[in-house]
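Sample A.
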Amino acid sequence: CTRYKESCHHVCTNIPGSFKCSCHNGYRMTHSGQCIGNVYNLSKALIPDFGCLDGRSNCQQICINREGFFQCKCYDGYTYNTNNNTCIRDVDECQSFHKCIQHCRNTNGSYDCSCHYGYKLLKDQRTCEDINECELNRDHCEHKCENVDGWYNCLCFSGYILRWYGETCSQDLDDCSSTPCPSNLACYNQKGPSYSCGCDSGYKWNTTLKICQDVDECSREDHGCEHTCVNQNGTYACECDVGFLKDGFSCSNIDECLVEDDNGCEHICFDTQGSYFCGCHDGYELELDIKSCKQCKNNN
């Protein structure tokens, strides 16, 4: 009976080497193995048989006697086929080949699709689309609403914090105004009734001396200066070699020859990386100051 229980309409009894079907009290078994009995209407009055008892209905599973006609039905899990009064075992599409994007609910002979909370079912009855609660004014945010998949978040204007239940805002007080940190530490106000103590940027805590000490950024390889790094309290600066112009972290060559007052060359100026040198026209030679030119004593 464990294996063939569904073959019996009402009761399955195991016997040696086989099984036996029987009906509940008040029912009798037809030649097709179905259990039928007198059917009563809602007033409990016995009504005449119109096909269920005499076998004319040919219903495969359940026959319901009505006033002047009969009706065939199927057990749960089966679908009625009107073409030949048969019952077809329902296929659970949700366990195999359904096309639902989110939820699938099996029905007799078919299935239905539905969506998670915060989504709506589109016209194709398969696809789900996020509901923008902010655009539809379905949110309860006091200040600003931010739509996210399947839900929304409430945000507050600058200077306000979100209350614990996530919809209304209250003004964020500066918890550092009461100077709660030790004098050798800086106070950092945080969102909500909170703050933290620590060293300012460019400093680190010395656990031995219990003070904030300057961080020497120039001792690290990532300071970024092209030429020279100069450490300062809490920060650092980049400097360039003589003859170069500073541009942030980089240094570019200064062409001294472009400015006559800077180079001092009497005749010709030759620019080099970070410097320059002077030269003279033919028939002249440099004086000892290596800028002025004098006529050569001979044509050599």
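Sample B.
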Amino acid sequence: MKKYLNKMWKKYKDSLWKIGFLAPAFILFFYIVGEPFIRGFLYSFTDWNGASKEMNMVGFDNYMKFFKDPTVLLPIKNSLYYTAITVVVNNLIGLGLALLLNNSFKGTKVYRTIFFIPFVISFVLVGFLWSYMYSDVIGAIFNIPSFLGNPKTVIPAIAGMSLWRDAGYVMVIYLAALQSIPEEFYEAAKVDGATALSKFKFITLPMLTPAFTINIALFLGWGVKVFDYVMAATGGGPGKSSETLALYVYKYTFNYNKVGYGQTVAIYMMILVFVLAGSAAAFFRKREVEV
């Protein structure tokens, strides 16, 4: 019996050590993410106001109310509009920077660092910084009103904050993918007389598909749930012209004291994020090229 127990101990010792090291991280994750999510999901079936000790179960009333609520249409539109701009523009600018800085010339590493530095700045600080830039710098130099004060330009202006902060991150992902492409592919194409455009179309782009999977799926998710830029720069204004889904959730949960409905919208927003990001990831993964 003792020999059997020793044998079993040796067999599972490494697994127990691994579980022991991972356990604190899992526990922390559960209390920071898992437990609040479960609570929010349960609250979505109630009419809790966030302050009272009493709450009533309302079943799926909140979920049905979402489809009858006309006020949620504008936040959905704003979130999707912002997402479309950031996904397209950030990826185009990031890819352009990566292609430019993939070449070896004096100061390449310095330029890479300069373009990446904004990414380490917090969302809220970027929101306050660009709110000042739009009103007191750009507005003063060109004698124009702030883009954040115009309902037609406020969403593109907020997307501009994302471009300034996140383009460097996109660049790094594409740069890593570019540097992983075997040089032999380009040499073989050169021997065959391929033009620079042909090399880019038939070698570079297909080999960048894993990077597209990461960047496009990531920015779809970030775009739909954007909150910090809007909260810091406009608070949803002017009027409600920059109110996003995440800000809509925040207002219903904390300002209007309708936690149940606010959490319901948050659940729908999470589903939208999973659908968009998951679909994009699945689409590009099918087209990834193995070397």
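B remarks: The chain has a mean pLDDT of 91. The two ends are 52 Å apart (CA to CA).
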